[in-house]
Amino acid sequence: xxxxxxxxxxxxxxITEGHHHCREGWVQLDCPFCAKDSKGWxxxxxLENNFIHCWxxxxxxxxxxxxxxxxxxFRECKKLLDGIESVEVExxxxxxxxxxxxxxxxxxxxxxxxxxxxxxxxxxxxTNLWKIKxxxxxxxxxxxxxxxxxVSNYSLAHISDTKLLKDLDDYFYxxxxxxxxxxxxxxxxxxxxx
Length: 194
Known about the structure:
The protein is of the alpha+beta class. It has helices at about 5-10, 60-70, 75-80, 110-120, 125-130, 145-150, 155-160, 165-175, 180-194; strands spanning about 25-30, 45, 50-55, 60.
């Protein structure tokens, strides 16, 4: 018997697709330990390996989980789970993309390093481990206003390779809170440039 048959027989709601927690070869349930009846589908059961794991609270015993969901005894749950079969899961090959390194990538600028340090990271460790580099939006050594207007999907590290941000770095750090967006920062830069 496979696990989904047990769930059906016990009228336990589960999903296998249509939710961001669903993955191929997994059955998603509401976790009875941290999110009972939430429809968050955090608890996953691996059809291939017969184990259960919650995205929030971690791994659990299959018997304990079934007992918690059903109020059945240990003996009843063990009997249900005896002889449970694995299901071979066919894996779809994911399409592979091509990495294109943008122009202007170079070693981290001091303002990148300050940005990382203020957030509790060691730039040398990150550079050695992840081989990160910096990039900026420089034209002739300074920002052009047109480069900033309508720009989105960048981070502070993308635009901090400039004298302007070096001078304004402390100002931004003190005046932008953690909820500030890139657009908030661009607005401040444009105000300073005018």
